[in-house]
Amino acid sequence: MSNPNSIEHIRQDFVILDQITTNDCPLVYLDNGATTQKPRVVIDAITDFYRQNNANVHRGAHYLSDKATKAFEQSRTTVQHFINAPHAKQIIWTKGTTESINLVAASWGQQNLNKGDVILLSEMEHHANIVPWQLLAAKTGVVIEPIRLKANFTLDMDHYRSLLKLAPKLVAITHVSNAIGTVNPIKTLINMAKEAGAVTMVDGAQAISHFAVDVQQLDCDFYVFSGHKIFGPTGIGVLYGKEALLQDMPPWQGGGEMIDKVSFDGTTFNDLPYKFEAGTPNIAGAIGLAAALNYLNQYDRKQLHQHEVQLFHHVFDWMTRQPNIRVYASRDNNAAILSFAIIGEHHQDIGTLLDQQGIAVRTGHHCTMPLMSVLGVAGTVRLSFSIYNNQADAQAFIIALEKVLELLG
Fold this sequence. Notes:
Aspartate Aminotransferase, domain 1, Aspartate Aminotransferase, domain 2, 2 domains, 40% helix, globular
C-alpha cells in the first residue's frame, strides 16, 4: 500500500506512466478529464475475477456464481458508502454517465414530463447532459432553457434565479465543467431548484475523482458518474437516485434479471436496483470500480486535490503571463482543468506539437459545442491534472509549450 504522504509513491502504482512515447520522450499524461489511468490494484482486481471467480451473478446455484455475486454486490455497497447513499439498492449499475443520464431521461423523464414543461441545463454542459433531453423534447414537447455563463467562466446566478421563475420540472447540471474546470455551487443550485419545485440531477463525471461527494448532504434527486473517470475501468458507471423516485420509475430496458415473473399474458418486474439492470451486467467492471474507490479511500482526498490545484495554479499563472495565449478557465474554484488557445493557431496543431514532445492533452470541442460557441471558439487545448501528476509533469508541459510558441514565432 502506498504512502499517502508521497505523490511519487502514488505515481508508482500507475505503471502506464512509466513509458517512453513519441520521439523518445517520457509520457506526460495530462488528459485525465477524458479518462484516468488505473492503479495496479484495479488491474489486479479485474484480472483476478476472470482468473478465479468468473461466473454469472444472481442466477447460478454453484460455488463460482456465489463468489461472483458476493463480490458484485459488495462492489455496490462500496459505491453506496463512497457517496454516502442511504441504501445500496439506490445504486444502479450503468455503462457510464451517458447511459445513466439517458436512463433518467427515458424512464423518469418520459413518465413525468409533458408538453411545455421546462428543463434547465447550463451552457457548460457536456453533450451527454444535453442530447438526451433534446431527444425527450422531440417526443414530448418539453422546453429546454440554458443557464447563461458569465465572462469569468461561472454560472450567471441572476439568470438562474430568473429561469427558476418558470417553475422548471427538472434542473440537470454538471458538478464540474469538463472543458473549463469550473466547480459549480451545486448545493446552492440544488436548494434553489427545490424551492422552485424542481427535481435535480447532477452530472458528477468530472467531480467524483477530485473531491468527496455526499449525496445526502447535497440532497440531489439523482447523481451520476463514470468509473473510468475515477481510476476504474471503462464500461461501468453509476446512477444514484432517491428511493421514492426510483421505485416510481418504469423499467428502461427489458430482459433477464430485471423481471419478477414473465408470461405471454404480462410481466412483473424485479425490485430495486435490479429492475434497471437488464441482462448480464459488467461484473468485472463493478469489481474494478470498487477496487478504485477502495484505493482512493486510503488517502486524504483534500490533500490530493490540493496537490492537483497547486499544479494547475503553476501552469495557469505561467500561461496568463504569455501574450499569445488565451486561457479559458478561472484560477479560483477550479477542479484543475484548463482550456487554452494560442492566438491565430489551430488547437489540433498545438496538440500535435505537444504530442511530439510526449505531452498528452485533449484538443477539440470536448463534447461541449454549445460552450465553445459561447466562448467564441471552435475548440481549445485542454490539460487536466490528476493525483499522480507531479511538478515535473507541469514543468515539462510548460517547456514543451514554450518550444511550440518559439516554433510558431
